[in-house]
Amino acid sequence: MGIVNTTPDSFSDGGEAFALDDAFRRAEKLLSEGADILDIGGESTRPGSKRISAAEEIGRIAPLVEAVASRFDIPISVDTSKAEVAAAALESGAEIINDISGLRFDPEVASVAARANAGLILMHSRGEFDEMHSRDPVESIFAEVECGLRKSLQIALESGVPRENIVLDVGIGFGKTVEQNLSLIENLARIIEKFERFPMLVGASRKSFIGKLCNEPDARKRLGGSLAAAIAAVANGAKIIRVHDVQETRQALQTANALGIL
User: Smallest Cα–Cα separation from 64: which of 17, 107, 29, 14?
Assistant: First the structure.
């Protein structure tokens, strides 16, 4: 899953793809490098970011979704936690909603996905939008993630989302310590065995735990750590890897597979 952020304040690229033309060129690049899914986001979820209106978010993502959908035959995911934005994205050609709140911010997202028979990614996170990265970490991260994902699943299923349309995400980097992020990737199978019917997505690319671990404040210089995290996640059962660097990640995974690591 290749990432396209149409935001002026993305933590990972500093807003390089904010303009529509730039965002479309980034989408083309990721597709040429072998992305299987494009994940388009219009609202930054970096630490310290502020919520924007649904109208502004739609204005950022809908033109890009429409442009990509009209040119390429590839599943498009939209990273949003607002039902209004989700509906507009699906109407523009998206097929998947990627909700970082796991339906906590707006449970109606599940109904939108159900009506459209769309895919739905449910990520674990804690707290309101402006405190997701600042809350004190819980003591038992595995119990917390399992509980949170079960609540999200319950909302989705009760809203009519088919089981086969749901993917789960442990939420690397959201209100978790460096050690907890590492433990979740290393022991991903512990979570997967609790939710065997649902594929697991891991998004560790360029995240701050890598920066803290490797003393690298520049997110764009965390490729090595991101590749290591991707290999470990796939080795431990992840089915989808959300990344900024598609070509490099595919090469790393292909090599790890040839070496018998995967």
Answer: 17
Taken in order of first residue, the domains within the chain and their CATH numbers are 2-200 (3.20.20.20)
Task: Report whether 166 contacts 196 (CB < 8 A).
Answer: no
Give the number of other Cβ atoms within 10 Å of residue 139's Cβ.
8
Cα–Cα distance for residue pair 126/148, rounded to 1 Å: 8
| Axis-axis angle for helices 223-235, 178-186 (nearest 10) | 40
Sign of CA dihedral 55, 133, 203, 251: positive
Compute CA distances 68 → 89, 93, 100, 106, 260, whole Å: 12, 8, 22, 26, 36
Buried b (16+ CB within 10 A) or exposed e, 218-257: ebeebbebbbbbbbbbbbbebebbbbbbbebbbebbeebe
pLDDT digits (tens, 9 = 90+) for 229-247: 999 999 999 999 999 999 9
Q: What length does the chain have?
A: 262
| Rounded-to-integer distance, Cα 211 and Cα 207, Å | 7
Q: What is the pLDDT of residues 191-240, one digit of tens each?
A: 999 999 999 999 999 999 999 999 999 999 999 999 999 999 999 999 99
Place of tokens 């509980």: 147
Centre a 10 Å sphere on the Cβ of residue 15 and count the other Cβ atoms it contains. 15
Query: What are the Cα distances from residue 136, in Å, to 145, 174, 217?
Result: 15, 11, 22
Instruction: Cite the active site residues.
Output: 207, 242
Structure tokens at 238: 């992840």
| CA neighbor of 64 nearest in space, from 81, 48, 78 | 78
Model-level pTM greater than 0.90? yes
Tokens describing residue 207? 């995240």
